[in-house]
# Entry
Amino acid sequence: MTAALETLRAVFGYETFREPQDAIIDGVINGRDALVIMPTGGGKSLCYQIPSLVRRGCGVVVSPLIALMQDQVDGLRELGVNAAFLNSSLDSQQVREVESALQGGQLDLLYVAPERLVQPRTLDLLLRCDIALFAIDEAHCVSQWGHDFRADYLQLNLLHERFPDVPRIALTATADARTRREIAIRLDLEDARHYIAGFDRPNIRYRIALKQNPRQQLLAFLRSEHAGDAGIVYCLSRRKVEETARWLQEEGIPALPYHAGLPAAERSANQSRFLREEGLVIVATIAFGMGIDKPDVRFVAHLDLPKTVEAYYQETGRAGRDGLPANAWLVYGLQDIIKLRQMMDNSAGSEEHKRAEQQRLNAMLGLCEITSCRRQALLHYFGDTLSDPCGNCDTCLQPVETWDGTEAAQKALSAVYRTGQRFGVSHVIDVLRGLENERVLQLDHHRLGVFGIGADLGANPWRSVFRQLVARGYLSVDMERYGALRLQEKARPLLKGEESLALRKDSSPATNTRQKTRQ
Ligand code: ADP
Ligand code: ZN
# Structure
């Protein structure tokens, strides 16, 4: 038996490693660097805890989650592991005790906050000790494009310079290919082996629908499928969180609000009620969730579009931790895209940052508009693969009907162009449908060649066409010009008739046939 397996059994009481823990652990024990991408709950901790125990010296774990350090250390001590932490919650006497235990070679594991680690005092101390490894937890915090960015993480590349012989293992639950590269570059882990593991959550059913009347859609979903269940409803703004929670209560569904603007006492009371009691719905901003581990969350519903696929995965991943069936439900519409683009345009970041954010949003939109299996697309995004359609997402269960939208798209794009790329969706649709309203007449748009060329479709089907054209990058929405639509380079071949376009059939009145449900 290997030393690693022996430790797994003797210390942690588990029989076998999960894929790919053993390969990771074996590598680190033998002094090799690793970059580990594993979803929450996948078992990242053992990947550095076991090598720390097997290798000579103390394993040093860098983590930004100061609030969780105490729990982790307590848990390890219960297993008989000599663990300690260094962060701002300790007084100077306690710090000295930890430091002398480390120097005396009495520690197996030491958790350190990043700002503490990079202090010269800490580095000097570590240089005098035997270090088994450095584990960099939540490694995506090094990414400047992510929302968890921590400036202190940028300095962690000094570990490689100062401790060239100590293996380093970076771990995170969220990293697309781009973030992965960024982590590797910034932490000097380009030669490290990358392990990407097990992102699939087969018991979660992914469902993404068009936003029509979101409150009624949510209510119907909760009443028909989740009466009495615990779940999370995510909203973008604090105000919407409070309004939605109040409204659900009025509808007889026990709901509590949670967002960073609530008084701390109320926030933690709501959180602990959600964890303790059964059948509560928590309505929350994305502030809710870090470190939440409630196994029986039966659904996660999104009333607003998450900004990235990572966020969507992370948030929906809070459902069904117990392995039983759970729903990830989302509704979105054109207004969501416009609102998010607007927020991104108005954010403080550099042009490059904004472009990166837009690209991420585009990937999320791609997932929404996709007509093939959502799980395959989701896993593909994380570099994981699923060879067959999953059979447990909406597009698998109820195949999306598509229609040849080439001509409609050409008309839509032409109308945007002929009206001067200065108008928003509503006006362009009025022109297409040939409505002689005041604005149209005032602008003389009833004299344009495109006026009325789209009279065969109603306003809703046109909105669906425009949403898909925006979501797929044929059109952009210029927020500095009140949502004016603009043609993108991608539109050219379509306009020239060199390309055709299949569009999703949203419950389109143009066809008048009800969507068939497969039994
Ligand atoms: P992560 O840090 O990836 O979110 P954890 O390291 O906290 O995940 O592990 C999640 C849970 O899985 C923990 O309760 C842990 O003890 C358990 N676990 C991890 N590895 C194994 C294993 N090989 N066998 C059984 N349970 C495991
Ligand atoms: Zn599927």
